[in-house]
Write a structure and sequence with these properties.
This protein is mostly helical and 233 residues long. It is built from eight helices and no strands. Among the domains are: 76 residues, Alpha Horseshoe (Leucine-rich Repeat Variant); 64 residues. Helix 2 runs antiparallel to helix 6, helix 4 packs parallel to helix 6 and helix 7 packs antiparallel against helix 8.
């Protein structure tokens, strides 16, 4: 009888252990699910890419997407037309402004140089319209690369999320450095750190838009009659 009870007890303990493993999963073995940082959950073992070539290709595509699109010098006639469209950004007629924004985007990559020069316009609306048009043109130029990145899953999502996390951390560190430099009275160091923080914020906006493009998300809102697919500056 004692032997039977012993065997029955062992069987019950085995069953209890099996149920715990089934219900608790990795936690039963002492593993914890990593907490999200900046709204991004770090990739665990189950989500890692098992094909290094896909990871490398995704990283190369991301670098190409983040790089500025070269701005060729347009022919004289095209340049004059683009300059007029940019001047129309300051028109008192709202329709003229909207039409100019849409038309300059149709000029494509040759308009980028003049649009970038208009970023520093003293007229806030001219600068903003130029920036929005440039983002739309760059997005169209980079769309094929984005489509390639979308096909590399899960590597595509992972490299974008990892870069977003790294840039966010770098931006936070730069802001902390700026505050420390201000407290120490080092104006030059503070200015340098603030510039780094600004650059990180801009790149973070680009990556956040790319996350929505590569993964599931909502369509972006139109601005000045233009709906950029990426916030590339």
């Amino acid at each position: 009888m004692a032997a039977m009870i012993g065997r029955g007890t062992s069987w019950l303990w085995w069953l209890a252990g099996a149920m715990c493993a089934l219900l608790l999963g990795p936690r039963a073995g002492g593993m914890e699910v990593p907490a999200p940082v900046y709204g991004i959950r770090p990739v665990g073992e189950e989500g890692q890419v098992d094909k290094p070539d896909q990871q490398q290709k995704a990283e190369a595509l991301l670098n190409e997407i983040l790089a500025p699109v070269p701005a060729p010098e347009p022919p004289p006639a095209v340049k004059a037309a683009i300059e007029k469209l940019i001047r129309d950004f300051a028109s008192e007629d709202a329709k003229v402004r909207e039409d100019a924004s849409a038309a300059v985007v149709k000029e494509g990559v040759p308009a980028l140089g003049l649009l970038r020069a208009a970023f520093s316009s003293k007229d806030a609306e001219v600068a903003e319209r130029a920036r929005t048009a440039a983002m739309a043109i760059e997005a169209a130029a980079k769309a094929p690369k984005v489509e390639e990145l979308k096909k590399l899953q899960p590597a595509g999502r992972q490299v974008v999320n990892q870069r977003l996390l790294a840039v966010t951390r770098a931006g936070d560190e730069a802001e902390q450095a700026a505050a420390a430099a201000d407290k120490a009275g080092d104006a030059a160091a503070a200015e340098k750190a603030r510039a780094a923080a600004k650059a990180a914020r801009e790149q973070r906006a680009v990556l956040a838009a790319l996350v929505r493009k590569v993964g599931p998300g909502e369509p972006m809102m139109m601005k000045y009659g233009v709906a950029p697919r990426l916030d590339v500056q």
